[in-house]
Amino acid sequence: MADALEFWSYVSTSQLLEETLPSALNDLVTAAQLKNERLAVTGVLLFTGAHFTQYLEGAPKELRELRQAIETDDRHRDVTTLSQGKISGRSAKQWLAYVQPSVYLDTAVRQAMSSLKTGSSAGVHKLLAILQEFGHLKN
Ligand SMILES: Cc1cc2nc3c(=O)[nH]c(=O)nc-3n(C[C@H](O)[C@H](O)[C@H](O)COP(=O)(O)O)c2cc1C
């Protein structure tokens, strides 16, 4: 039987300061890249300029530990789950990060956030589809 795999995707609000943004993003992405490789966690991180959204997949234990670290990281706040669950195979071959600020992406994240508040699913599904496209994730 194949090893158990889970995924977790979320949105959050950046707490990074404008003045130190390039180096702060570089530090975050460099450390995450190394650790994700070590934990065999794959997926995609998007930074919109004001928010983050990320899709991660891996073994349950590794994903749980990483999730705890991410949820308590003070470089962002209001970490809110978009979707999570078990999967039978990986969608992503690797982990990618796109950190170029984008009004298009930020609007999609804001719409997903209000969707989550109102319990409607349209904005959440749209953002999940965007994550899938950015990460070259398989359906
Ligand atoms: C928006 C955001 C996304 C992050 N994504 C990852 C990630 O994919 N992988 C990772 O290892 N750390 C990620 N981190 C950093 C973790 O919160 C944490 O700092 C790191 O895993 C701790 O590494 P350590 O084992 O060296 O203490 C992220 C942090 C933020 C704010």
Concise synopsis of the structure shown:
By secondary structure, the chain is an alpha+beta fold.
How much of the residues is beta strand, in percent?
25-35%
Question: Quick check: average pLDDT?
Answer: 95
The topology string of helices and strands comes to EHEEHEEHH
Which percent bin holds the helix content?
40-55%
Class by alpha and beta content: alpha+beta
Number of strands: 5
Distinct ligands, ions and cofactors found in the model? flavin mononucleotide
CATH topology (fold) name: Alpha-Beta Plaits
What profile does the largest beta sheet have?
A: 5 strands, mixed
Rg over alpha carbons: 14 Å
Distance between the termini: 21 Å
**How many domains comprise the coordinates?**
1
Q: Taking strands numbered 1, 2, ... along the chain, how are they ordered across the largest sheet? A: 4-1-3-2-5
Shape: globular
Instruction: Please count the helical segments.
Output: 4
Query: Which architecture per CATH?
Result: 2-Layer Sandwich
Low-confidence parts lasting 5 or more residues at pLDDT below 50?
Answer: none
CATH class: Alpha Beta
